[in-house]
Amino acid sequence: MSTHARAGVARPFHRRGMLIGGSALLLGAMMPVSSAVAAPYQVQRYGGANRYAVAAATTADKQNWDGGIDVAYIASGELWSDGLTAGPAAQADPDLSGVLLLTQKNSLPKETASALTKLSPRTIVVVGGTATISAGVEQQLRKYASSKVVRVAGKDRYEVSANLSKHANPRPTGDTVYLAGGTVFADALSGTGAAATMQRSVLLTAPATLPPSVAAELKRLKPKRVVVLGGPSTVSDKVLGQVRQIARADRIGGKDRYEVSAALIHDIDRDMKVSSGGDSLIRNTVIVNGTNFPDALSATNITAGGVLLTQPNSLPAPAVKLLNELPVDSVKIVGGPSSVSVAVEKRVEGLIDKWDLWG
User: Fold this and answer.
1) Cα separation, 192 vs 203, whole angstroms
2) DSSP letter string, 190-211
3) Running along the chain, 359 residues long, what does each successive block of 10 average in pLDDT?
4) Domain boundaries, the chain
5) By C-alpha distance, which of 102, 115, 108, 167 is closest to 141?
6) What is the pTM for the complete model shown?
7) How far is CA 94 from CA 62, 88, 90, in A?
8) How far is the C-alpha of 33 from the C-alpha of 299, rounded, in Å?
9) Which one of 112, 169, 180, 336 has the largest count of C-beta atoms within 10 Å of its C-beta?
C-alpha cells in the first residue's frame, strides 16, 4: 500500500470541492490549475489540449509522491463503456491510491505516458480486450509499472464490468451497487461519479435482460441495495424485476440526464447523512459536459460529491436547483471552455457564492 493511501477514511467525508466538466476544485490538498478564487467559494478548471491531457490533469495531486501510487487503470478514450466502470474501480479501496487514465487503441498518448512517469504506479490494470486496447499498448505500459501489468477483459462490455467489479472488490461488499444501461452513456455518466465518490461498483446491463455475468456478480457482491439508473427505455422494468430477485432495487430516473444526475447526488447526500448522523456532507461536486463522455470518466479521479451534468453553454434547471439546495462551496470543472463554457462557470460561481461556510 502506498504511504499516501487514504488510511481507511472514505473520501466523501474528508474532501471538499466540486467538479464542473473540465475543471476541478478541491479544498485542502488542491492543485492549482487556473487562477485562484478566494474563499468562501472556489472554482477550478482541469483542462487540456485533448481528452488524454484532461485525464492526466485530474491526477496532478497524486503525481510525484514518494514511492508512487498503488494502481493506475488504463481505459479506452475512444469508447465509453469500459471507462465508466473502470473509474469507480480505481477508487474502490479506501486504503489504496488509484487513478484512471485514457489511451488510444494502438498508441499510448504522450500525455498519458507523462502522467504515468510522474505517478509511478505499482500496478497497471488494462481495461478491456485487445480489440479495445492493443497488445502493443499493453507492452508499452510495462515500463511504467514498478510491479506488474494485468488485463481485465471479458466477452462483452457487461462481462468486463462484472470482472472489473470482481477485481476491485475481491470480497463481497454488502454495499450499494449502481446498475446502468450499457447501450447509451447518458445516465451512466452520473453513476460513475456517484460510485467513485462512495467507493462502490458500477455494473452495466442490456436494456431488455440482465446479462448472466452481471447477475452472478450481483449475487456475489450481496448488495444491500441496487440503484438502477435512468428510465425504462434505458433499463427496462423487466431488468428491474430480475434485479429485485437478487437484492432490493430502486430506480433513479428523470425526464433527462440532467435530472438523473441531480437526483443521484441527492441520493448519495442522503446516504452520507445516514452514515454521519448529521447534516449534508456534500461541499463539492463535479460538473461535466453531459453530451459527451471523456471528461466524466476523468472526473472520477477527483470527485468527492458526485458528478453533475451540464449542457456546454447553459446550466440546466436541475443543476441550478441542486446548487441552491446543497451547501456546495467549491467546484471542480473537468474539461476546457468548449466543453463547459465560461458562462456556465460564472453561473456556478454566482450560485455557490452565497454559501459562506468559512465564517
Assistant:
1) 10
2) HHHHHHHHHT-EEEEE-SSS--
3) 39 35 35 38 89 98 96 97 96 95 98 98 98 98 98 98 97 95 92 94 97 98 97 96 98 96 94 76 88 95 93 98 89 95 95 62
4) 11-352
5) 108
6) 0.88
7) 15, 11, 10
8) 15
9) 180
